[in-house]
Amino acid sequence: MSFNTFGRLFRFTTWGESHGPALGAVVDGCPPGIALSEADIQPWLDKRRPGTSRFTTQRREPDTVRILSGVFDGRTTGTPISLMIENVDQRSKDYSDVAKAYRPGHADYAYDAKYGFRDFRGGGRSSARETAARVAAGAVARLVVPQVRVRAWVEAIGGDAIDPANFDDAQIDQNPFFCPDAEAALRWETLVDAARKSGSSLGAVIACEATGVPAGWGAPLYAKLDSELASACMSINAVKGIEIGDGFAAAALSGEANADPMRPGVDGPEFLANHAGGIAGGIATGQPIRLRVAFKPTSSILTPVETISPTGEAATIATKGRHDPCVGIRGVPVVEAMVALVLADQALLHRGQCG
Amino acid sequence: MSFNTFGRLFRFTTWGESHGPALGAVVDGCPPGIALSEADIQPWLDKRRPGTSRFTTQRREPDTVRILSGVFDGRTTGTPISLMIENVDQRSKDYSDVAKAYRPGHADYAYDAKYGFRDFRGGGRSSARETAARVAAGAVARLVVPQVRVRAWVEAIGGDAIDPANFDDAQIDQNPFFCPDAEAALRWETLVDAARKSGSSLGAVIACEATGVPAGWGAPLYAKLDSELASACMSINAVKGIEIGDGFAAAALSGEANADPMRPGVDGPEFLANHAGGIAGGIATGQPIRLRVAFKPTSSILTPVETISPTGEAATIATKGRHDPCVGIRGVPVVEAMVALVLADQALLHRGQCG
Amino acid sequence: MSFNTFGRLFRFTTWGESHGPALGAVVDGCPPGIALSEADIQPWLDKRRPGTSRFTTQRREPDTVRILSGVFDGRTTGTPISLMIENVDQRSKDYSDVAKAYRPGHADYAYDAKYGFRDFRGGGRSSARETAARVAAGAVARLVVPQVRVRAWVEAIGGDAIDPANFDDAQIDQNPFFCPDAEAALRWETLVDAARKSGSSLGAVIACEATGVPAGWGAPLYAKLDSELASACMSINAVKGIEIGDGFAAAALSGEANADPMRPGVDGPEFLANHAGGIAGGIATGQPIRLRVAFKPTSSILTPVETISPTGEAATIATKGRHDPCVGIRGVPVVEAMVALVLADQALLHRGQCG
Amino acid sequence: MSFNTFGRLFRFTTWGESHGPALGAVVDGCPPGIALSEADIQPWLDKRRPGTSRFTTQRREPDTVRILSGVFDGRTTGTPISLMIENVDQRSKDYSDVAKAYRPGHADYAYDAKYGFRDFRGGGRSSARETAARVAAGAVARLVVPQVRVRAWVEAIGGDAIDPANFDDAQIDQNPFFCPDAEAALRWETLVDAARKSGSSLGAVIACEATGVPAGWGAPLYAKLDSELASACMSINAVKGIEIGDGFAAAALSGEANADPMRPGVDGPEFLANHAGGIAGGIATGQPIRLRVAFKPTSSILTPVETISPTGEAATIATKGRHDPCVGIRGVPVVEAMVALVLADQALLHRGQCG
């Protein structure tokens, strides 16, 4: 099947392909009366826009968003908000040989196996271009939960991690890697440049923190915050892992080492640790929500790889089309958007049931 | 909110608390004509049943399942299948002091923050006892996709991992740890015994493999197999991380090292690697589906931990109630069940759209 | 498919067959802290219970409900509420010949066509017995919207309608027909007795009114109150028509005759008419919500009817099993339940989006 | 809440307001490989287009549809199909006084009560213009179930009904009323002209028949065909009633008179009657599916009606804006679209569960 809608009360549906005329999102269930204009959305799109540095794909897309419905006199009306972004810089010729052979690691073979047929231009629907629509919807979600601050950054590229001791929030927007560690950012320049020049690619780990989430948001059992966040992040292209709080590290700990003790605080409890990433029993504890997401290296590389053709013959393919040497970098605003979208939904759900 | 239903076409809804009279699942959307009796479900429940070894909680529950609807003349009718398991060995007194103070790391505080009120007996709805209902539903799911084999095991306990070189499928059911490495199983006896005796607890990593999944199952974009599996596993108590294929390890690789080359095979392509865990673009490639799940150590420990009372006073709590020194162990049949439930749903979804 | 769940935030799932061991409902999404016990549900079940007068089926079912989960210390916890009703008085032998030939007008042939197989005992899943589970869930829904009063009655049986001039709310519970017109009730005794004795059956029209619904509930566009109410009522066995407000009569009116003028009232507008049945644009106006539901006569009649056997041979069938001469009568509490369930859901949805 | 998505597997989401820049639909879950171009959709839009005769609103909209995604090389890809229709002939000034007073019978007051705010231009989201998006989506649905023929017509206007004896399918497209009775069509010219000239409006009854629906489609219990069709039709602007088969007339019949006897036929049973409208137990019997829908007269009339202003003062309003004297007429293609959308969804659901 195809399920292009995400969310339960605050829902969005995305549409569009890499080389179609446009792509977009329809946001449904947004509360009424929220001030909204393109200017509230564009900055987030600019953050993920391609072609902004030599470390991202050279495809040049303005990613200009238009609001086609759901807003009147500058405020949301409670009806669906249609957001559209036109594609401008498609170069379908770049992808001609993708029609002749499957790119291993990409969705090419799987889509053909499922649908018997695919739009091979730039990966069609499976292209990361679709994430522009998520970022646009995410910008609306942020306005639904203004008390929440969602912030993501790159924690490691190709296995080279930041030094937590160097963490500086102010650095994140000062370099093309969303890197909070100035020294790591310098190392990554060399690292990503090398990958780019050799036509290779690198994986990355993104970390995200959401502060201001009140205790109580979350929906046991199958819409636990952990579940919703995992589902949201795993739906992002190239994501292959997610951890809430300490994640896999917690699996190596004892109960004593993993405890999050509480003591009376000014309003609500003061927590002495946050191994659980701000979620217990699927419900927010009021602590910062913390998660980490693993992006695999893009499978678009210049090195020829063994593969087969749609008709089953042996072939090799080298991806020449423009692409990101490290897709994880531009994953930062996308992870932020998905987390914001989950939290906006949970906010409405909580109010719906618990008033 | 409370969302106790999982799935899109093959759906199940669970209900029940740790110390209520019973718990159960209603399976809806199951295809008709499938031979089904309690005997098809009971073995899977027995696999997760408590009190089977000294390494699990000493609560003794027969976990006998009854089919109350949806089956006629030994076959499914296509209508909802109601499965019920009665609780037998509740000892609510064990949990009396849980009413007086929140157990850090448990859902106690979060449930109160959300609902203003909670069933504190054995964790109420947030108890891992609910997973019995999932295992029962999962047994039905297995019958919907008989071509698929879902198999999970424990890969590490408290940071002590198996040696892949020792992997022996036959070993998994030969020890109380679902451990495929006989040597590791011996080490874990000592490890878990020590934790049990000291009233401590240990985290664990579960690995799961599903073979026989045909290429094409999966549902872009927000019901990608990766997403559905992540959502399903993250909804299990104590789970804090999930990886598909190489997961976080892939984030440290280059595109060349992470490639899954293909060459012509007997039927469909032969893959030379499986870093992606059998899923590309959210759709199955026909390779084995591989995932890993991180279970945190249970927060139920004898060591007193700083906490607060429902009225906000400082307190300490030590959990005396019967519990698992390593909840991850009994997570094995639960992970298997959730994976089977996702695959049964995807099988019907694929047939519905692409049939 | 099989979709046995209804609702969006306040959801219920029903299960069970006419001749299975039990049937039930799982209510999910109910707000926490609501006082609830079996005593709040039983009276509504008693209202639809069979065998209470000679005008309903002689099957004798106590329809005793048990709450198996979701309630602690006499209050809802916000987690799923499992309600179970055991079947006591099944007489499967009565239905033996239903296995040999399809009862025209019943679901027999259609279920076989869909599922290739059916539980023919008393109609299995398609039996009106399932509505007991709806009435139990509806009793919970009423407690979620205590400001709302949902009241239904029989407006016509076999084409013999009440005289609006005789409408007396107090009469409704004074006769076995839920009839607000004492004179009509007398006529119906003769009418229904005749049908019962001749083994015939009669259709009926049920009217329902919900007062206390605040302006603003409702969810454009595809969850309009009109749509949700229509969907809810059309899902009841034997229902073949629904009207909101004037319904089909409005189709014969001019815009002037159909207008619902407003003038300033004490709080909000005072309406001078209610042709629209209290709903405009799918949203409640604050007026009483009014609807009418058409129940066809049950197809269970003594007169032999031409039919075919599952193997396609010509046959005739006369239904001897116990049944209602006029199913519409016992439809009254069922319509009330479905309306209450829709309104509880809409109340939570409205709070969720519009706070 | 706002729920602008309809369907379970074959789903569509609509967006847009009467006076916004555009409106559209996103169709998700459509099977792959279906030949689709704008030319397959435009004829159905032309059928409901305004300004085609003096009997419909004089607003002139080309209603030209564009396919923005989901189609490649002229075939559906299985990914979301985005359909957009630009608004051309908005005259917002016409609606200025709608801002100052609520139009009784319209959604004006209810939307304000719900959202505290509304787009009053032409009714904003509650305008029947939204149905253009449904018709576009419905055109895609027809291609999903090519074996099904969905055909609707006007059965009565302002209480003046056709004579069944005069029914002639060929006539339906020969007059501006979709009227199968040539004589009635002539009478309606006078009737609707009079209403139009006096600035009045008339209600209408639409009948719809779907042939070629195989026995077995439908989804008990809460997605019964009756329920889905009722929900779909009741979501159309101005619809206040729906009947399946004989509907309310059946409520006046005896079981004998309402029976649909069967006898062995060439393939499957031959039915001797179709009181049930082709649906038993919520599942298609293979007979033609028959339903009737009641459209109220539009509340837009020249006669001043008592009302109130958003600030609660007494006012009167007469609707001068361009509108349909009988909205039911243009409801014909909309009812057809909704029925086709329900059947496409049920076709996929049936295949998903019953293969």
From TrEMBL, chains A, B, C, D:
Manner of cofactor binding, per the entry note: Reduced FMN (FMNH(2)).
GO MF annotations, alphabetized: chorismate synthase activity
Entries under Gene3D superfamilies matching the protein: Chorismate synthase AroC
PROSITE patterns assigned to the protein according to its UniProt record, in alphabetical order: CHORISMATE_SYNTHASE_1, CHORISMATE_SYNTHASE_2, CHORISMATE_SYNTHASE_3
The protein's annotated pathway: Metabolic intermediate biosynthesis; chorismate biosynthesis; chorismate from D-erythrose 4-phosphate and phosphoenolpyruvate: step 7/7
Cofactor: FMNH2
InterPro entries linked to this entry: Chorismate_synth, Chorismate_synth_AroC_sf, Chorismate_synthase_CS
Record: residues binding NADP(+): R48, R54
Protein EC: 4.2.3.5
Enzymatic reactions: 5-O-(1-carboxyvinyl)-3-phosphoshikimate = chorismate + phosphate
Entry annotated with the keyword Protein biosynthesis: no
Record keywords: Amino-acid biosynthesis, Aromatic amino acid biosynthesis, FAD, Flavoprotein, FMN, Lyase, NADP
Function: This reaction introduces a second double bond into the aromatic ring system.
Assembly and oligomerization: Homotetramer.
Protein name, entry field: Chorismate synthase
Organism the protein comes from: Sphingomonas albertensis
Gene, per the UniProt record: aroC
